[in-house]
Amino acid sequence: MASSKDYLDFVLEQFSELDEVSSRAMMGEYILYYRGRVFGGIYDDRLLVKPVPVAVKLMPDAELELPYDGAKEMLLVDDVDNREFLCELVQSMWEELPEKKKKK
């Protein structure tokens, strides 16, 4: 099941306090970036983020879920209505996110 544009718009609106959040459509789903680094995505209308240590610490009870078959597990963010928490989460994660790979 592909994610809806309406859900993407809702999630991006929740991150509106942050200047550099963007998305890219990919095979019916959406990859999410903060300041040029991938922090998560929207898969089947679920917000999933990379399980970096600070995200695990901020969401100790979060379930690990597969975004799609064959992918690495990601943390399910179930409090998507809490704008303040979402912004804090993504800002805190940035230092631990891998940098964008350089093209050869």
From TrEMBL:
Superkingdom of this protein's organism: Bacteria
Entry-linked Pfam families: TfoX_N
All residue ranges annotated as the TfoX N-terminal domain in the record: 13-73
Natural source organism: Eubacterium cellulosolvens (strain ATCC 43171 / JCM 9499 / 6) (Cillobacterium cellulosolvens)
UniProt name for this protein: Regulator of competence-specific genes
